[in-house]
Amino acid sequence: MSSAQIHPESVLFITLDSCRFDTFAQAHQLGRLPVLASIAPHHKAQAPSHFTYGSHAAFWVGFTPGVPGSDRPWLNPKVGKLFRMSFAGSSGQDGDCFRLEGPNLVRGFRRLGYLTIGSGAVDWFDPSTETGAVLGRPFQHFWFSGNTWSLRRQLAWIDQMLAGAEQPVFLFLNIGETHVPYWHEGAEWPRTPSPCRPFGGDSCSAAESARRQGNCLAWVDTQLHSLVSHFRHATTIVCADHGDCWGEDGLWEHGISHPCTLTVPLLLRVRGQSVN
What we know:
The chain has 276 residues and is an alpha/beta fold. The chain contains 9 helices and 12 strands.
């Protein structure tokens, strides 16, 4: 990652696809997330949807995960949104938020002169599909990795896109290693079969799902130091778009409304200041 100073009005938006809140909390407690923990304290939040497309479509109009009962703007989008789209709900107590106009926040940042860069890992970001194009098309530069285990290649591509950037940047990164089958480059376990599959089955295991997702999250943390450091004086939001069920109430994976699919980690640093 280039050592050049990023513009302080820049924004880094990272989604840890499918990462359960308890996975994040346990890894943090064990000291396995030094890079992510350096951003801000993590909060127990509720995602706007239980699958990737639904949550990211909501993110794109300013409905980021919220902490129920919080009276803090940004942590609770009902109180005040970090990304305020024109005519997107009540004005709230937004304070010094990012005020944007257009069909989504990516286009809004482009209208403000930002360089918009995005990379997605899961199939909902596949630009060859009409639905995938909806999420990726608004960016000036977008790269779909083609699988859920290519974070290193995503980061290398992002580094190229950031080279020489002088204007503010809106950078989005969807990370797939925490998505089923919970695998990363160099992992000591095979990529298949997944320990978490829709409707369960003999190969499904809650304990193995937790182990693998936790190890993937810790590995992801080792890859993010340069990117996170690059945006340390700017704004960074890290969250999951949803979680997974691991046999709770007989349910497996996501795409179903359940506390395990809707409860996610949220970290927020705005213009260099952690939101506690």
